[in-house]
Amino acid sequence: MARKPAHEQFDTLKAIQDCAFDLFGRYGFDGVSIGDISVAAKLSKGALYWHYPSKEALYLACLKRLHSLFDHYIFDTVRTQGVDPVEGVLSLFNGISKLLQDPLIGNGIAGYWLIPDSPETAGLAAEQRGFEARSTLAVRDLLSRAIDMGRFDLGGDLDDMSRAIISIIEAVVLPLRHQTPDEVRGTLGALARTLFRAYDKSGMLPQF
Fold first, then answer.
1. What is the pTM of this model?
2. Arithmetic mean of pLDDT over the chain
């Protein structure tokens, strides 16, 4: 089979990635077949296998794409050491709001939390666990700096709060796409103010 020109390969690859990302986000790994993706992308199964050797490989590429969106909107700022840690905490909530406005997740991403427990998908589950571990560590470092500057007092809850914030981010992102931007921002503002009321030693509530 003659190899396609580069621009045609790019168009085909983009069609595969966009359709697969959307379908996996809506229906999860088990809910989507290569046939489903080929129909949605209007391509043959052979075209898909030309670019990806298996459904697992395609799902992994989509999962990494999702993680890059979370990093872009939420965690890249958190990992910036020069940012004021209190502003960094607020950027978490602002980042969630921006992520929810990205058209890529407009049809939902809950399916990416439906990775089955099987030998074939062990690498996918490991990728998800690794991302959550890295994200939790980024939040922990941010909160730790806020403690060191005397702004937050978490007592002995640093590790638990770091994990809780990741859980909150996931819990907020999955259903809130069905709400209006104002409703989303109102919910996120309430969560941010609750966090600051509980742990901010200054007693100042953020403007969110």
1. 0.88
2. 88
